[in-house]
What does this fold into?
Amino acid sequence: MEIQLHDIRVEVDRKWIRTMRLTVRPPDGRVRLSVPWLVSSATARAFLESKWEWICRSRERVMQGVVVAEKNYADGETHYLFGTPYTLRVIPLTNGRSRTEIADEELRIYCREDATREQRERLLRQLYREQLTAELTEQIGRWLERIGEGEISWRLRLMRSEWGSCNARKRRLVFNEALARVPKECIEYIVVHELSHLAVQNHGPAFKALMSERLPDWPERRKKLKVFT
It folds into this structure.
């Protein structure tokens, strides 16, 4: 049995259980509802309607599937910055402060020879945060002006399950630090996505229509983003 909930098909299983159970399954975001035998279809639909925003948020997280590959931050590794592969160079320092730089298709970490993996990671993350902060500052400012939105606040945070989030009531956005790895057009997709949640707080037809109006090729950008998960 299936229930068509707006633009999403929900698989419905009747079981000998006491309460309804709702799940969103990877990798394609399939939605399944298990219901007790005596629960009517109308009651099941009403339950799904009450969970609509949760379903949309969960499907977005599952379909984005943000996974950052484990790295050793060792000399010779490949790391991506804005979609471009760079070779990581770990250069021993005999004196002076640890630092990073980008040069000749390399990400360079200057640090003590006995620096730990965690210390090397911290240095590279700082470089990524600086680069991403500059890029997001430009993109967010440009899009706020374009769509006529007022001031917002935003920050970076390392997240495991989503590229960004929006608290529309507080007008506060959060972006995943891992966006520093992906192409700038994919970052723009996430920026527009989260800014659009200021107007529409779910992922239903109205939200998709707004995204298509603002960024017509957003589905292609979302597909490209998956390459970097």
Q: What stands out?
A: The mean pLDDT is 90. The longest helix spans residues 117-147.
